[in-house]
Amino acid sequence: MLLNLFILIVVLVILYLLAIMPKLRKNPKLEAFDGWFYAHRGLHDNKSGAPENSLAAFRLAIEQGFGIELDVQITKDRVAVVHHDYDLIRSCGVDKKIADMEYEELKEYRLFQSEERIPTFSEVLDLVQEKVPLIVELKIPWKPDNTCIAVAKDLEEYKGVYCIESFNPFGLGWYKKHYPQVLRGQLSTDFNKEKIEGSKTQYFILKHLLFNFHTKPDFIAYQQKYKKGLSFSICRKLYKSKAVAWTIQSEQELLSCRGYFDLFIFEDFIPRKTI
After folding, report:
1. Which of 40, 44, 83, 208 is catalytic?
2. Which of 86, 134, 186, 263 sees the fewest Cβ atoms within 10 Å?
3. For this structure, is 84 an active site residue?
4. Does residue 142 surpass a pLDDT of 90?
């Protein structure tokens, strides 16, 4: 009886380690991301003329020598736009969802009472023009195809340094199948502690990176508050996976993340330039 129990435990541990295993072969393209801090949604202040995910915020990040993290989703007519929330309640004071709006309607709204509007992903790429590396988060509620197709189309001719990341493992799986050369990262956090509404089973799987066996991410992007989580720690220490911290909000938090992460996404302060 005890022997059977021991064997069962060993098998479960092996299956768990296989499930969370990221890509083991390091992609040399990752080196291009080293030595940069990444401005979360651009170098923004939502009470200024450069709110989050705006061209003005991205322009400031470029001017001050920071890489950029941004969010991409699609409109009803499948235009890739740069915006974090799925609706406009917080950013524009309008109870509408981006997925229900065509781009011609969407561009009429302004971000956080500024003069900035929601930019297309193509406009952002034209602005950046390969000056700084980009971390592109794909906002995918469920099925990835339309979002991934729109994003991939915009990136087709882009020659700058970029990677994609997403909470949705199906989006990473889509990129693995269709664009395996593109660097991809699995985003995660402790969804229960963040009190995010949704399926507890789904969030358990995502928190513990149990889809890594399928997506084989090049890096793990983890909420820095939960940097001691079991699955993240195993990916970091056993599998030597590249790790990206989000979102650092002070020099103190930055200092506490040294040794846990390789790259750092920040907001609400300006980090010292030395990594």
Report:
1. 40
2. 86
3. yes
4. no
